[in-house]
Amino acid sequence: MTFQWPLMLWALLTVPAMIALYLFILRRKKQAALRYANLGLVREALGVGNRLRRHIPPALFLLALTLMLLATARPVATVTLPTQQETVILAMDVSGSMRATDVQPNRLEAAQAAAKAFLTELPARTKVGIVSFAATASVVQAPTLSREDLVAAIDRFQLQRGTATGSGLIVALATLFPDAGIDISQLIYGRAVQSDGNAPISQAKKPKEDFVPVAPGSNQSAAIILLTDGQRTTGPDAQQAAKMVAERGIRVYTVGFGTKEGETIGFEGWSMRVRLDEESLKRVAEITQGEYFYAGTAVDLKKVYESLTAKIAFEKKQSEITALFAAVAALFAILAAGLSLWWHGRVL
């Protein structure tokens, strides 16, 4: 915990002064009580409990005073607060490799089930959009608050060939900023963007003149969750696409799904070995100030989404907690006064 006005902490020196004053008053009262011949009878009448009650209200008041003095220094602490993220885009891989059965019943069905569970945990105020990608990427469901529409969209997933991770990121970004003039066709299919990723996306992009890049991760109103189980096989480079996402301050949380060793699967008469490209996913998350998660099983994937819910719905941030200190101080002061009136018929 830190303080914005640390010089005000010098006021805490009044606390030991108040303690010394209280002890002085008690001593004076004790000396006055010695004048009575039957002092023992007085103590017996008071009892241990009554003597203890005498000190509780002043102690509570002293604690309230200490908290109020700390509040004047404007304390700042790291606290967990609800985020202001209003929109989340789920970009999900629907390439043919998602039919692999190393995750039961298969990768696609496990991913669908985890995504549906994720929707139920998100705050009701958070809009969610869904983008699917294979050889191309498309918006399956525009951002909406309707969880029923989102579940229906997830159920409509159709497996296709290819894995265009970069395309998924670009379409997700365009979905978040529909009025930003992001030319999806040029970015994904334009000659300036090669499938091997050698030509940077910035060559194909034609941003508006008034667009000014912001710091990565600075946009707290939206986030992208990218789930894939394999390596990019077509479309723009995912890391180059991540740089464009980062320019708008959006964080990308990447999820690698399936076995790291990979698996050979067959589909419509052909077979291929699919393997997770963790390094690329880690780099995408790093570029955008997001985070990478690995899920090797359906249970792992569910836990990943639970972690993402906590990150998206809540965030840890530095916040001034002066009001909290003042509120607790007021509570202790009221309690001290109330106990004193109840036990002694006077306020302190």
Description:
- By secondary structure, the protein is of the alpha/beta class.
- The protein has ten helices and eleven strands.
- It folds into two domains: 2-78 and 319-344, no CATH class; 82-318, von Willebrand factor, type A domain (Rossmann fold, 3-Layer(aba) Sandwich).
- The protein has helices at 14-33, 39-72, 107-121, 147-155, 165-176, 184-189, 238-247, 278-287, 298-313, 322-344, and strands at residues 2-3, 75-82, 87-93, 127-133, 137-144, 222-228, 251-257, 263-267, 270-274, 291-295, 314-320.
- The strands form three sheets. The protein has a six-stranded mixed β-sheet with strand order 5-4-3-6-7-10, sandwiched between helices. It has a three-stranded antiparallel β-sheet with strand order 1-2-11.
- Strand 6 (222-228), helix 7 and strand 7 (251-257) form a beta-alpha-beta unit.
- Helix 1 packs antiparallel against helix 2 (39-72) and helix 2 runs antiparallel to helix 10.
- The chain starts with a strand and ends with a helix.
- The model is unreliable at 191-206 (pLDDT under 50).
Strand content: 15-25%
CATH topology of the largest domain: Rossmann fold
CATH superfamily of the largest domain: von Willebrand factor, type A domain
Structurally, the number of domains stands at: 2
Q: What is the CATH architecture annotation of the largest domain?
A: 3-Layer(aba) Sandwich
Shape: elongated
| Number of DSSP-assigned strands | 11
Q: In CATH's first tier, which class of the largest domain applies?
A: Alpha Beta
Largest sheet: 6 strands, mixed
Residue share in helices?
40-55%
In round numbers, the mean pLDDT is 82
Helix/sheet category: alpha/beta
Succession of helices and strands: EHHEEHEEHHHEHEEEHEHEH
- Number of discrete helical segments: 10
How far the N terminus sits from the C terminus, by CA atoms, comes to: 32 Å
Strand order of the largest sheet: 5-4-3-6-7-10
**Radius of gyration (Å):** 31 Å
Query: How would you classify the quaternary structure?
Result: single chain
Low-confidence stretches: 191-206
